Structures are given as structure tokens and as C-alpha cells.
Amino acid sequence: MPAVDFAAAGQKARIFQGAIRKAYTIVEIVYATRL
To answer: Where does the source fall among the domains of life (predicted)?
Structure first.
């Protein structure tokens, strides 16, 4: 696996993790405002 591919995969993983974290935060806010 070339270093470039590895770096690109790491970047995608980071973006994906960030998206999950944002989605989780939104769900948490919606849940909190519903109570």
C-alpha cells in the first residue's frame, strides 16, 4: 500500500469521524430540547 493511498485513507477516516461526531451532537441537541 503506497504512502499516498494510506494518507488519503487516513484523511477520509478523519472526515468520516468528524461527520459522525457532528451527527451525534445534533441528535444529542434534538433529544435534549425534546425533554
So the answer is: Bacteria
Q: HSE on the CB side for 1, CA within 13 Å?
A: 6
What is the amino acid identity at position 25? T
- Tell me the C-alpha distance between 33 and 27, whole Å: 10
Whole-angstrom Cα distance, residue 29 to residue 21?
A: 12
Tell me the C-alpha distance between 21 and 3, whole Å: 27
Angle, alpha carbons 19-22-25 (nearest 5°): 150
> What is the tens place of the pLDDT at every residue in 1-30?
578 888 899 999 999 999 999 999 999 999
